[in-house]
Design a protein that fits this description.
single chain; alpha/beta; 434 Repressor (Amino-terminal Domain); Endonuclease, Chain A; 2 domains; 5-stranded mixed beta sheet; 5 strands; 10% strand; disordered N terminus
């Protein structure tokens, strides 16, 4: 049971910022509506009113109605407690995985789905260390610096979504992952010196994986094909691919072979201009030694 319930305090909607359903997320709306109906049916099956059920799980009556009505995303612990109180034998708790995905922004879910299928991923970043490479601390510091400021709940939601994407490093067979980072993204001590050091150490750690290539684009490179901004290209087992770039095709995702060849060409030229993986490792080690 939740800490609030044990303390005799019932959670209200004010305690649940950031757990609203995105009105533009059709899949998410459908999932939460289905979960809500199942929760209501289980509650009614054991003859409990919403207020009585809420007290048993530590939630106010209004919030119980909102969850059952598909207006709020239930927390994992709510589903666990609801399963226990209603005697659902794990049927409600089993819905946690889908509910957890709804918490992730729609755009993040879409890119995570593509990354999970890709056999080759090429990523060039010129503003920040790419999200897949970030440590927890560095990630939190980046989110904390954005304006308008995220609430604590929103920050946790964004972090959870990004952290879930790290599973790409654990896949088998492992995809080929290529990263090119601008030097400036490695020199900016976001979160302070110790956070920055641990971020550089994380890059060295990931760079040792056989399927991961990390290269640094030096700031003093006179000719630079990455001035158009971020580039991402994901290739799939069936030979198809999808890519996007801030400086091409209005920043939208593309899958047309002719457009993908343009992104491939730009990324290939950027890789050729950057330090080699071995040189990049030495460069990062030198940066660590300078602190």
């Amino acid at each position: 049971m939740s800490v609030d319930a044990e303390a005799g305090r019932l959670r209200t909607e004010a305690d649940e910022p950031g757990w609203e359903v995105d009105p533009d997320d059709d899949w998410g709306l459908a999932v939460i509506a289905t979960v809500g109906r199942q929760l209501r049916l289980r509650r009614e099956a054991v003859g409990m009113r919403a207020g009585e059920f809420g007290k048993a799980v530590g939630y106010g009556e209004d919030l119980v109605y909102k969850i059952e009505g598909g207006k709020r995303i239930p927390r994992p612990e709510y589903l666990d407690d609801a399963d226990r109180v209603s005697g659902a034998d794990g049927l409600i708790a089993a819905m946690k995985e889908d509910v957890k995905k709804v918490r992730y922004p729609k755009s993040v879910r879409e890119i995570a789905t593509l990354e999970a299928k890709a056999v080759e991923v090429a990523l060039y970043g010129n503003h920040n260390v790419h999200g897949l490479l970030q440590t927890d601390e560095h990630m939190r510091a980046l989110f904390g610096a954005w304006l308008p400021a995220y609430s604590d709940e929103e920050t946790e939601r964004m972090m959870a979504a990004r952290l879930a994407r790290r599973s790409i490093f654990d896949r088998s067979p492992a995809p080929t992952l290529s990263f090119v980072q601008e030097e400036v993204t490695l020199r900016r001590a976001v979160g302070g010196r110790m956070v920055w050091r641990r971020q550089l150490e994380r890059l060295l750690e990931l760079g040792q994986l056989r399927n991961v290539s990390i290269q640094v684009m030096p700031t003093d490179c006179e000719e630079h094909f990455g001035t158009g901004g971020l580039i991402e290209v994901l290739k799939f087992p069936d030979g198809t691919a999808v890519g996007r770039s801030e400086g091409a095709f209005n920043g939208r995702a593309v899958s047309d072979p002719k457009q993908l060849r343009i992104l491939d060409l730009r990324y290939s030229m950027i890789r050729a201009q950057a330090l080699s993986p071995r040189e990049s490792r030495a460069f990062i080690e030198q940066m660590l030694g300078e602190t």
